[in-house]
Write a structure and sequence with these properties.
418 residues, mainly alpha, 18 helices, hexosyltransferase activity
Length: 418
């Protein structure tokens, strides 16, 4: 009887005694239930957009040595766009039936996002028991980028895991393994290619051996196993180089959708390119020794720039910006201001702004929120860094860096009462 009582007391909910405990007790149930809802309900239900079916068909065709690159690019439905190396890695999903394969793919991507979140905590020297853990988990699975990755059933969760593993191993100077992590993502899609600038400027040359070697080896293996590998070069690659005016939040995509003059589109891209270059120069000049801040912030700048200024930027690409958002825990983070999080709302929110009462305004808000969010984020980062530079120059302390001068903590008062 006594042992049963002790066991039941262990199951009794504790009452929070500190603010941190209150936050954790409140957010852990919300985070866990949100994860379960996104995976078991939203993702399994699916939606009109289906990124999985073209991949499954391509994998099945590959296993049966049939043509893979047969998509009709005149249709706006999701197409199969992965190179032969990616097809090789995807092939196992076609071993079982489509429905169970899709469920498994959803589960694997959900687990990949959770593991990426854990690695992000470790990157910033935080643990599962910290307040940041439930906040991060809830934020990730409440976002459009994770939710639609699971609903559409694409591979972005695994790409995020590859990105975070790459950054963590890069920070810990495990260069060859860092290259393996990002090289596996290159074998499927080159979305993280701008991040190779990081080991270039930090002179971590071994990264390039595995980062480039892995996709080359996989391509060499996949090429003779494919029925139509040259069709990827002749048909798919030219399509990937084009800028489309639908499902495209890049400047060129929204500019084409709204009929902006080509010269204005070019001017906007050039202006934001200058913003990006200024940010990267200030980061390299004054922060490259502060490796955690430099790598996470530069990652955000490079990827946001590639989404906004490239030929194709889709909202759920924003998943790759989680390392930048997590940098808010750093004292000198560029994310510690409200305009930065207004920008995050633009490209992370799952809210739809389509309005039955105000259709034109609602449509414009819905289609432009991601573009405006990415744009504002780049402006905020550049603005923060330039303001720090100007302040440090005015105060004559550029040689010591451009971080703000933080006030010294007040000494604790010692009670003299008996």
């Amino acid at each position: 009887m006594y042992r049963a009582t002790v066991f039941l007391r262990q199951l009794e909910p504790r009452t929070a005694r500190t603010t941190a405990e209150v936050v954790k007790f409140a957010l852990w149930p919300l985070a866990i239930m949100t994860v379960l809802h996104r995976v078991l309900v939203k993702a399994v239900n699916g939606a009109r957009t289906d990124d999985f079916t073209p991949v499954y068909r391509a994998a099945l065709a590959f296993l049966n040595h049939k043509p893979v690159y047969t998509a009709n690019f005149n249709w706006v439905d999701p197409h199969y766009l992965y190179p032969p190396s990616g097809t090789l890695l995807m092939a196992p999903i076609a071993v079982i039936d489509p429905e169970r394969s899709r469920w498994l793919f959803i589960g694997v991507n959900a687990i990949a996002v959770i593991v990426a979140g854990y690695l992000l905590l470790r990157m910033f020297d935080l643990t599962i028991s910290s307040v940041a853990a439930p906040i991060l988990l809830l934020g990730m699975f409440s976002s459009e980028t994770v939710t639609n990755t699971l609903i559409f059933t694409n591979i972005n969760g695994l790409v995020l895991l590859g990105e975070v593993a790459f950054l963590l191993l890069l920070l810990r100077r495990r260069d060859a393994w860092s290259g393996v992590a990002i090289g596996l993502t290159f074998a499927v899609k080159p979305i993280l290619a701008p991040l190779l600038l990081l080991p270039l400027v930090t002179k971590q040359w071994k990264v390039f051996v595995t980062a480039l070697g892995i996709p080359l080896i996989l391509t060499a293996v996949a090429w003779p196993l494919s029925a139509d590998p040259m069709d990827f070069v002749h048909r798919t690659l030219p399509y990937l180089m084009e800028s489309r005016d639908y499902f495209n939040s890049a400047i060129v995509g929204n500019g084409a959708y709204y009929g902006l003059p080509d010269l204005l589109i070019l001017a906007l891209r050039a202006a934001f390119a200058v913003v990006v270059l200024v940010s990267l120069w200030l980061l390299y000049r004054y922060y490259r020794e502060d490796r955690l801040f430099f790598i996470t912030t530069a990652t955000g700048v490079l990827l946001t720039a590639s989404f906004l200024l490239g030929s194709l930027g889709q909202m759920y690409y924003s998943m790759m910006l989680f390392p930048l958002l997590m940098s808010v825990v750093l004292r000198n983070s560029v994310m510690r201001n409200w305009p930065a999080w207004l920008a995050v709302y633009g490209f992370m929110t799952f809210d739809s702004w389509l309005s039955g009462r105000f259709p034109a305004s609602g449509r414009a808000a819905e289609y432009m929120k991601t573009t405006l969010g990415w744009s504002l984020l780049l402006l905020v980062i550049c603005g923060v860094l330039v303001a720090r530079y100007v302040t440090a120059k005015r105060e004559g302390r550029l040689e010591r860096g451009i971080d703000p001068v933080y006030p010294e903590p007040e000494p604790e008062k010692v009670s003299v009462e008996a």
